[in-house]
Design a protein that fits this description.
This protein is α+β, with helices and mostly antiparallel strands. The chain has three helices and seven strands. The chain has a seven-stranded antiparallel sheet with strand order 1-2-3-5-6-7-4, with helices on one face. It is globular.
């Protein structure tokens, strides 16, 4: 069995407000992540109000969870941040609200500044969703152009 190494939820600084992982975002999910060998994992229990059809975790929110996991997979395995450039999601079976979901992310390929990741969401031992997500690994200057403001110091080390 692989050793589980928790990833620091304050990696991007105390003040960051990310919906998925921001520890102080009162509307967010406050997700936590851990590295297990060549994967990054998270657990999450969808809540009432996060459904599409009654009792079924909303497909768009599943994609949000997958994207967040892919971003932390980059952090946990490469020590890099990135910007999502594409996402292909396959909803395979219903994921139920109120039951724990286990997410796993891994790197599939690297081509220059583009990294492709694979993410799965499982519930009760069955895969409910698969995604392939591509991220561009930016330098600090391109992050600042994208943000339209200076890069927070706590993020700079993840860009170059």
């Amino acid at each position: 069995m692989e050793e589980t190494v928790p990833l620091d939820p304050l990696t991007f600084g105390e003040e960051q407000t990310c919906f998925g992982c921001g520890p102080h975002n009162h509307r967010g999910w406050k997700l936590r992540f851990a590295r297990e060998g060549d994967t990054v994992v998270t657990t999450f229990t969808p809540r009432e109000g996060e459904d599409g059809p009654p009792g079924i975790f909303h497909g768009g929110l599943q994609a949000t969870l997958a994207d967040e996991l892919a971003g932390w997979t980059l952090m946990g395995l490469m020590g890099r941040m990135g910007f999502t450039t594409s996402m292909q999601v396959r909803l395979m079976r219903p994921i139920r609200v109120g039951e724990e979901v286990v997410g796993r992310g891994r790197i599939v390929s690297e081509h220059g500044r583009v990294v492709t990741l694979s993410v799965t969401l499982e519930q009760a031992g069955k895969v409910g969703m698969k995604a392939r997500i591509a991220y561009r690994l930016p330098d600090a200057e391109s992050v600042e152009r994208t943000l339209g403001r200076p890069l927070p110091d706590s993020w700079r080390r993840f860009c170059d």
